[in-house]
């Protein structure tokens, strides 16, 4: 088994279940901005996108105003971000072994405060590379490379855990091993690049 110095995590669909709280408000934005009725399965792919890119791809005209309203709807949504079973135990287990941990996500800093800090997961993370920290985002390797730079580690020393093909492609481009977190994945495209496939968080403890 390969020994890793650090484990890096995506947030949505990996550490936290945020599908409903992000996408039902998005469906509301689509109704208001585009006058279209869509179903949840129609917008699942946007879980892997930064918020502004989502609105741009949907064809929203005033993306800045719509994004601010989307954020407000998310914050007002009755169901907040919830931890997947076994996440805390896994983070604690790796921390006890001295494995360094960090976040590489398309969330912005404000969302990180609400979701990660609000759920007490930030205490396990040495750093967090978020959407404002790089010009290019996943599936480009830039966010992962920025995290490696902060941790002063080489690609072969880390494992990136994520739930989307975009996460996988970013890891591949960065030369980083990828663990496919199938427990929270709503990915509709094949994830071909993965050192391991995990059905529950605790399985990560057997890979590091």
Summarize the structure in words:
The protein is an alpha/beta fold and 208 residues long. It folds into 2 domains: 6-17 and 82-206, HAD superfamily/HAD-like (Rossmann fold); 19-76. It is built from 7 helices and 8 strands, in the order ββαααβαβαβαβαββ. The strands form 2 sheets. The chain has a 6-stranded parallel beta sheet, with helices on both faces. A two-stranded antiparallel sheet has the order 2-3. Helix 7 links the parallel strand 6 and strand 7 (177-181). The longest helix has 16 residues, at 19-34. The chain is globular.
The second-level CATH architecture of the largest domain is: 3-Layer(aba) Sandwich
First-last Cα distance: 8 Å
Q: What fraction of the residues are assigned to beta strands by DSSP?
A: 5-15%
**Uncertain spans:** none
Mean pLDDT: 94
Q: Which keywords apply here?
A:
single chain, 208 residues, alpha/beta, Rossmann fold, 6-stranded parallel sheet, two-stranded antiparallel sheet, 7 helices, 8 strands, 37% helix
Question: Short summary of the structure?
Answer:
The protein is an alpha/beta fold. It has helices at 19-34, 51-58, 63-76, 87-96, 109-117, 142-151, 165-174; strands at 6-9, 16-17, 82-83, 100-104, 128-129, 158-162, 177-181, 196-198.
Topology of helices and strands:
Layout: E1 6-9, E2 16-17, H1 19-34, H2 51-58, H3 63-76, E3 82-83, H4 87-96, E4 100-104, H5 109-117, E5 128-129, H6 142-151, E6 158-162, H7 165-174, E7 177-181, E8 196-198
Parallel strand pairs: 1-4, 1-6, 4-5, 6-7, 7-8
Antiparallel strand pairs: 2-3
Helix pairs in contact: 1-3, 2-3
